[in-house]
UniProtKB/TrEMBL annotation, chain A:
Source species of the chain: Lentibacillus persicus
Protein name: Cytochrome c oxidase subunit 4
Gene Ontology BP term (one): aerobic electron transport chain
Subcellular location(s) of the protein: Cell membrane
Keywords annotated in UniProt: Cell membrane, Membrane, Transmembrane, Transmembrane helix
Membrane topology annotation: Multi-pass membrane protein
TrEMBL record, chain B:
Gene Ontology terms, MF aspect: cytochrome-c oxidase activity; heme binding; metal ion binding
Originating organism: Lentibacillus persicus
Name used for this protein in its record: Cytochrome c oxidase subunit 1
Recorded catalytic activity of this chain's protein: 4 Fe(II)-[cytochrome c] + O2 + 8 H(+)(in) = 4 Fe(III)-[cytochrome c] + 2 H2O + 4 H(+)(out)
EC number(s) per entry: 7.1.1.9
Matches recorded under PROSITE patterns: COX1, COX1_CUB
CDD domains on file: Ubiquinol_Oxidase_I (cd01662)
Membrane topology: Multi-pass membrane protein
Coiled-coil segments on the chain, per record: none
Amino acid sequence: MADNTNSNKADSFQKQKNKEEMQKQLITFALMILFTIIAFVIVATGVMDAMFVIPIIIVLALVQVGFQLYYFMHMKDKGHDMPAVMMYGGIWAAVLTLAGLGVISWW
Amino acid sequence: MSTVASQKRGFGEVLWDYLTTVDHKKIAHLYLIGGGFFFLLGGLEAMAIRIQLIKPENDFVSAGFYNELLTMHGTTMIFLAAMPLIFALMNAVVPLQIGARDVAFPFLNALGVWLFILGGILLNLSWFLGGAPDAGWTAYTPLSVTSPGHGVDFYVLGLQITGAGTLMSGINFLVTIINMRAPGMTYMRMPLFSWTTFVTSTLILFAFPALTIGLFLLMFDRMFGSAFFDVGLGGNSIIWQHLFWIFGHPEVYILILPAFGIFSDVIATYSKKRLFGYTAMVFATILIAFLGFMVWAHHMFTVGLGPVANSIFAIATMAIAVPTGIKIFNWLATMWGGRIEINSAMLWALGFIPSFTIGGMTGVMVASVVADYQYHDTYFVVAHFHYVIVGGVVFGILAGLHYWWPKMFGRVLHEGMGKLTFWTFFIGFHLTFFIQHFLGLMGMPRRYWVFLEGQGLDTGNLISTIGAFFMAFGVIVMLVNVVYTAVKGEKAVADPWDGRTLEWTIASPPPHYNFKQTPLVRGLDPLWIEKTEGKGHVTPAEPLDDIHMPNSSILPFLMSVGLFIAGFGFIYQVDYNWAYILLFGGMAMTLVCMLIRSLKDDHGYHIPKVELEREAD
């Protein structure tokens, strides 16, 4: 019996974790749909100037990318350091290049 | 070697073995053969260039053919010789150095080598199909867009195919080094060659996409009527230069960093000392890679970017001299007080230090914007980059080949011929290129097919050409050495150089599964640690068990052939409708192969434990 309780305990711990993980996934999923709706609504209804709409949509998009990477693709979990380093390295190289070209063209 | 002697295999069988192989050691042989062939081809082109310039107003080759020669010399040497030869060494050595049984994606590895070989052949077939590319290896627009004939089309398609192979191999090495290190082989215990391979692969991953995009734009401009680089239609021809050098400058470090890694291993081994400043060496490598992305515009100082942009790029460029200097001093300090053994591999390393330092010094000179307005497009620049690429990369490849030849082929290269190669090549190299600094300062421009009499350029060019013949002699001796070694060379033991790293713990050449049991790594230079404070051999990290191996496959070769055929389709669809058959047929071939690869489950095979035990006896 004692053995059984133990294994049940471990199991329930895992179950609890899975449940939390599922909750997080659902919340992020709902938020992402919400962001998409917001983006469509502010464009469709024309409540704002293009000057505000564009940065808002870009911010929403960036948050969605973050959700995608960190929640759906598990970059928040352990053992994802190297992918993170490589991705941020790549982003750094790309941003640097674009910034360089931008400065050269418009300064 | 006993297996080869006991069961002589037919030529067809060996050929099929190499066409289908996914073994990193055989792929290294393929890279070496392919890269070596193109190295000789690029060398022949260089000899033709030097013979043309032996005297004023020479007419050895025509002006148009001279343009083709110089373009193909540069393109071949960078993309089809230096990079594949470096990949040959990486494939041969890196999995062994980190204690792995193969690379992470053996199939992808085979695809990489075949894309390189067939892309290179496609590019060089242009010689027989109406003329080679003639717009310089940099293919600057608008010249490359308006260049008549199909030469530049071959450049675009050939490099696109080889570039895809390089990108794949780069990703493959990244994954291999991150995931497949033996137990105990932490990042900071990796041999420097593995480290530089890792950093180089990162550079490939980040830099090659810029070339891919540039080539695509050029392809659309030339073949499909777009106007990305056509100023008359609202395009911008400077964008090509940016894209090319955003790739091209990291490319320089893609070439030189592995050479740095080779020298670090060679110098430590033959000095019988731990590499001085290992940590500093690693961080200098990373810093060079990091800065390498911020300096591309120093190739474009005279384009007219403005003083602010030029100054920023000049300062960033000069900053690279700092980590490079750290490395030079670390190599010197490694040798300091060491028990130095001078043989052919070590000679290349010793020759490298002064040669590369001269190249680095002229590098700082051309990095200074005001001075660069004088140096730009003269022979001074030609001298500079040959000092870094020949004095750095080629010396590195040759040092690596002499050092790892026993591991790759099971025989030691002949020492006397190795030394003869070094001395003739080394003297020839300095004769050829040192004088070119002064030719450049006297105003001799790059890429001109003749120079006039009585301008003080005659003697310098004559000396330069004589030097080129010395280098050619050195290469021929090396070839003789390779053949001699293959026929009657001395058989290599597992550890011919009293080595320090894991590749010397297994037989030369290694069995196809590399390590019977994965080794346990106890620190930097694992074998040396075991030699000095252990049992003299590396402790296994696992009990003897079945070994999982990948199956051979012809698909990588067929996929590459498909792209090769499609390349001709792209080039000729401009003129003939039948070329669409090649285009769609070739692409279909590649896609069908990809489909087969995806749908067919291939779990590889196991070498049973019993067999491994039997081999031990």
